[in-house]
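for the recovery benchmark. tokens below, seq after
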């Protein structure tokens, strides 16, 4: 069953999950690498990853003994189309969105 629009927006509502998506813009990551910058347990990160997976925003696969996460950017198309239906929003430019996420979640330089 395909994720609903509510599921996608609920997944995007949490700042930790948005930060995870931003990290996955660069490349696939092992779950332990995803968890490293956060001050929470691996179990808590796994719950966030479960929400993102249920929303279709990421996929997870086992490679050997390591579980990897991969961004599925097409999963946001439904949300983009929905917002565009109001005529108040311009089409989402994924390059601009990626740049925004990088600015929003990058470490401030000293």
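predicted aa per position
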């Amino acid at each position: 069953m395909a994720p609903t629009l509510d599921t996608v927006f609920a997944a995007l509502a949490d700042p930790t999950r948005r930060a995870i998506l931003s990290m996955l813009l660069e490349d696939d990551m092992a779950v332990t690498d995803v968890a490293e910058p956060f001050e929470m347990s691996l179990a808590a990160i796994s719950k966030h990853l479960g929400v993102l997976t249920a929303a279709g925003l990421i996929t997870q696969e086992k490679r050997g003994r390591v579980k990897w996460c991969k961004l599925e950017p097409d999963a946001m198309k439904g949300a983009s189309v929905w917002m565009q239906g109001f005529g108040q929003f311009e089409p989402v430019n994924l390059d601009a969105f990626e740049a925004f996420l990088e600015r929003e979640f990058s470490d401030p330089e000293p």
